[in-house]
Amino acid sequence: MKQKRRKLQMVAVLVAALTMSAIAEIAIAESGKVKSITLATTPTRIPAVRPDGRIDTPERPGFRVEILRSAGRQCGVDVNFAPVPWARALELVKNGDVQGVFNSSYSEERTAYGAYPMKNGVPDSRRAMTAYTYGLYVHPDSQLGWDGKTVTALGSDKKILVEEGSVAVKMIGQAGLQPLETARYPNMVRMLAEKRAQGMVAIDTNVVEVLAKEPQLAAHIKRLAPPFATVYGYVMFARPFYTANSELVECFWTALGEIRANPEYEALVRSYNNGQFIE
């Protein structure tokens, strides 16, 4: 009996000791063929996915989960998900704890550890995960202005809320503003509504998703026109993983682009967004 209990304890310790990177190694069969991949992203992009990777509503997991799994099936791999704050997602890719991350805009800094779909030396937008806009949001009493080129009426307070680790940090710095980095979108929106910053530069669809869950905040923020920036978001794979599995990754990117080009994709997205096409 004691021996059996000791064995169970050893199994429990072994399971507890497994890290994401170890799990990633298990995903590779003895033949060396990759059987599954894990992609990290922020919880707002995959709201049905729990922190442990399980899905609350497997019959309706979200359109992003659906298309990524479909691309995986076409290329012979299962796709799992890790919902974490964005800065953490990038760290997981850097450390090789997950195989990829989405939606990552292209940046030279990230190419040191991440791989993007490329064509003729530039990112191949036809194989992107999405195209999305950043908006400049303010609270109703803010005097900030935006004409599409310059942010005006800042005064002495130049703090603008941005998602930690996102490309918006660089955007804000280049505009001569001070980024106030925050890990999670709900916190960003609440802070702006509470007037703890003059403005917020955020992905529009993420803000829409936050307000859908916390509609009481909508009256306390507003979006200035035009969009602050329009960028493409990609599934960025860890560079060592791409080097070792380039054929698989290229297949995945191509399959994803073909799925998004299919008219059925728009219908799928609308089915999740009350008839609206919001990626």
Summarize the structure.
By secondary structure, this protein is of the alpha/beta class.
Structure notes:
- This protein is α/β, with parallel strands linked by helices.
- The chain is 37% helix and 24% strand.
- The protein has 10 helices and 13 strands.
- Strands 1, 2, 3, 4, 7, 10, 11, 12 and 13 form a 9-stranded mixed beta sheet that branches. A two-stranded antiparallel sheet has the order 5-6.
- Strand 1, helix 3 (63-75) and strand 2 (78-83) form a beta-alpha-beta unit.
- Helix 3 crosses helix 9 (246-261).
- It is globular.
- It starts with a helix and ends in a 7-residue tail after the last helix.
Helical content stands at: 25-40%
Q: Kindly name the structural category.
A: alpha/beta
- CA-atom Rg in angstroms: 21 Å
Which stretches are low in confidence, meaning pLDDT under 50 for 5 or more residues running?
1-31
Compute the average pLDDT. Answer: 87
Name the overall outline.
globular
The DSSP helix count reads 10
Instruction: Give the termini distance in whole angstroms.
Output: 56 Å
Strand content: 15-25%
The biggest beta sheet reads: 9 strands, mixed
The topology string of helices and strands comes to: HHEHEHEEEEEEEEHEHEHEHHH
Quick one: how many beta strands? 13
